[in-house]
Input
Amino acid sequence: MNGQNKHTIFRFEITEILHYRRQSVEFSGSEVLYEILYLHKSITRIFRPTEEDWIEFWKKINDLDVWGWEESYHNLCLDGEDWSLSIEHEGKSISSEGGNAYPGVKGTDYGKVFTNFLQAIDSLIGEKLFLIDPYIPKFSQKDHAQSVVFKSFSPVFRYKVKNGLPLEEEIIDEELWQSDGVVYARTHKQEIVYIGKTNATLKSRVQDHLRRIPKYSKPKDLSYRSWAEGKTITIFAHKPKNKNYLGLSVPIHTGLEHVLIDAIKPTFVSRR
Output
């Protein structure tokens, strides 16, 4: 059985009507995008499962016979919960939706099949999402800032550290790679470990960073190299437009960098 492939389509959405809390999970290549929207605030997170995780996930989908779910499940109720699911994978497809009703069970409880489906998503990304035990989320400044990075920034460059050396380098967004005046973040899975900005091109800034990794001598730098060993690091970046102020065009990337650092407090950024 194969794992994930770039042609796979997967989108699952579930909405609590009374509180208007919407959660969605979507696959984009080998990444899983999770978003929760509540009271007009949102958090977006990105997960990158391993090949083994993908294989196990699709096995569970087959074992649950998700491909045989009915097109629609509904129980009449004034509030409650709506959900929808669309999948296309390896020649199979399913489109199903429901309102206060779920596969394999009568009444308004999730039942075993739907609960196991939600747990399969949790197992895929290695973290329990807010799907099975609902609660009213509390949105912190850090949550919002992290959501800004993963939702509004774009993945630009990726590398892996092996034996203290940056290898397997991949340019994802050539335009941003060649841009100046950008804010960028070093990330691993959903963890943001560094926020920076550059007046020169992002390419020159990152290449300088890569050259320095094998030569690190300061404790903070050595700590980063040790932490990054064996990990794939993805750099997200954003080039904000200048703002007009007093008739002048003012670059804001420096200010954005400070705000994000203050909110997220990345592990490998010295406090300012």
Summary: Residues 111-125 form the longest helix (15 residues). The mean pLDDT is 87.
